[in-house]
Amino acid sequence: MKENKALQSAIIASSGLIIFVAFFLIKSVPEIPKSVLLLMFVPFIITLLLKYDLEEIGAGFGHIKDAIPRTILLSVLFIAAMLVGLKLFPEILPYYQNVSKVPDFWAITFISIFAWEFFFRGYLLLGLSKTIGFWWANGIQTVLFAIIHIGKPLPEAYSTLISGLLFGWLAYRTKSFFYPFIVHASLNIVLLFILAG
């Protein structure tokens, strides 16, 4: 049984790396189809082939009772940190003012965030943590999460090292990627109001 779990983790790790690299290399596909196909559909199929229960990779509401206060706390902390960051690093706002002019930017953002959270906190973190442990799995998904932010303003890219670890902690504690999605989306909702105002 342990060998089977090790093989499953090896498949998740290697497929995760291949998916991640493909996500960067494929430039001709629009963001939503690319995110949904590579970061959700392919891992979903692999999960089914491995005979994992989808709840094992956080595709459910997990521990709701624990999740609510932790999700609220992290949302408030991240929003406060973002507001301070926007004051300290004013170069961040023009970047988002430019990219937010892309048609359907916010739909693209929220669908992509959902796919990212499924992939990083669900498929990779929860899929790997059973065999390599939480800390290694959290480190792996955090580094990949930070890499996916390359090209964004540097303060944001660096901050993803902290946010990736905390999103991973939240997913692991609640056994769901849904709560990191809520925190991640709340940041973008506040940013939307800032850009609109």
- Tally of discrete structural domains: 1
Rg measurement, Å:
17 Å
Mean pLDDT: 89
The helix/strand order is: HHHHHHHH
Task: Figure out the total of helices.
Answer: 8
How many individual β-strands?
Answer: 0
Blueprint of the fold:
Layout: H1 2-25, H2 31-49, H3 64-88, H4 92-99, H5 105-132, H6 134-147, H7 154-174, H8 178-196
Helix pairs in contact: 1-2, 1-5, 2-5, 3-7, 3-8, 5-6, 5-7, 5-8, 6-7, 7-8
How would you explain this protein's 3D organization?
The chain is mostly helical and 197 residues long. The protein has one domain (2-196). Helix content is 80%, strand content 0%. The protein contains 8 helices and no strands. It is globular, with a radius of gyration of 17 Å.
Entry summary:
The chain is an all-alpha fold and 197 residues long.
Task: Throw out a few tags for this protein.
8 helices; globular; mainly alpha
